[in-house]
Write a structure and sequence with these properties.
With 225 residues, the protein is mainly alpha-helical. The chain has one domain. Helix content is 72%, strand content 0%. It has eight helices and no strands. The longest helix has 30 residues. The termini are far apart.
């Protein structure tokens, strides 16, 4: 059984239905795998019992899965490859928010569950009322962008040490979203498009937000010792 391709016109670089129709968009997904490899090395050096850092390991695995899924999307460009692209991203966002609420903001589990449900409810509402092709599809990431800046404000209000690092991550994410959004508007003048820059900067963003969690864990260990 064959799967219909659904992404042929989504990106400047793709002008056919060939596997390597988007070589730059496909290859730049390596940034996610490389970021995950660096984070795995850091986690191994921490030498923590798995039950204490299970969420950090799982987020790191999801980071690698994002790269693999996006590679499949930009090569196979069919319906199941789209799921392979979107699902790891959604899981990464959810688990990162969970870990941030628990590890950084130190919320009780009832509040963690509340804010997770609230985030997804807002996410679902916004995506249901806004056109899916709005901002060249970047509307999918709008709730996450808002949520990340909300976390920045929280860190600054509470005066947590993670605030400045999170500002850098949120700023890089903002720039990456701009590149993702303008991709199709510049096809005539720049056929390669800018989606590959979204990959590179988004990979950096996810690495930076994970570092916030890792550094917080290392500081906690130092305090305990």
């Amino acid at each position: 059984m064959t799967h219909a391709r659904v992404a042929v016109t989504h990106y400047c670089e793709r002008t056919s239905d060939l596997f390597w129709a988007e070589p730059i968009n496909a290859v730049t997904n390596l940034i996610f795998v490389l970021a995950a490899a660096v984070l795995i090395r850091t986690l191994r050096r921490m030498n923590e019992p798995f039950y204490q850092v299970w969420d950090l390991w799982l987020i790191t695995v999801l980071l690698s899965a994002i790269g693999i899924g996006s590679f499949l999307w930009h090569t196979l460009a069919n319906s199941w490859a789209e799921l392979a692209d979107v699902v790891p991203i959604s899981l990464f966002i959810t688990l990162f928010l969970f870990s941030f609420l628990v590890r950084i903001l130190q919320f009780r589990m009832a509040w963690v569950v509340f804010w997770l449900l609230f985030f997804h409810a807002v996410n679902f509402y916004l995506l249901s009322i806004l056109p899916s092709d709005m901002l060249n599809g970047s509307v999918f990431y709008l709730p996450t962008w808002i949520g990340l800046w909300v976390l920045v404000v929280n860190c600054k209000i509470i005066d947590l040490k993670c605030g400045n690092r999170l500002i850098i991550a949120a700023s890089v994410f903002t720039i990456s979203l701009v590149f993702r959004t303008v991709d199709q508007t510049i096809c005539d003048s720049w056929p390669l498009g800018t989606h590959f820059l979204w990959h590179l900067l988004n990979g950096l963003t996810l690495y930076l937000v994970m570092n916030v969690l890792l550094i917080n864990k290392m500081r906690y260990n130092q305090t305990e010792s």
